Amino acid sequence: MNIFNKVYKILCEVDARFCSGFLGQIPTDIWSYIYTVWLRLAGAKIGKGSIIHHRVKIWNPENIDIGKGIRIPASTDIAGMDKILIGDYTLVGANVSFITNNHPLEDEKLNWQEVLIGTQQTIEVGKFCWLMNESKLVAGRTGLKIGNYSWLAAGSTITKNVGEAEFWGGSPAKFIRKIHPYNG
To answer: Which of 29, 67, 31, 32 is nearest to 50 (CA)?
Structure first.
């Protein structure tokens, strides 16, 4: 763990909205650029032209790999207990959640880390996808993969792999139809 990661974890507990004076007058875009640079220093891989809003909650930035040309809006949660990969030019709506590890329900006496050993709970989102507002991506015991050009409807909870150029919606999400990758 590098020094930036340690400082990042400390600063996560401080909320910028309570800053006053000069710091409170800095426009949101500047905070977002600073936050994106800070995440890179903390170990996140963020592609060229991508911007992370400063109100995005990210756990374990060293597990995050974000492609080129992506803007992640405020109120997005990225719980990177395992790897989270977001492909180039994917559209991420407001309040989208990426959830990798959670705790098991089998036996409360078991150490949850021991139960999860050997499971790969990576979330992998392809290129040119559209994750609409309030979508929740939840990796199961074997992870979650969203194919290139796929769409998730607003408010969807996706727990199953999505093929290439597919439209899914609902909670839990179900396949709706195939889409043409260039015009829907």
So the answer is: 67
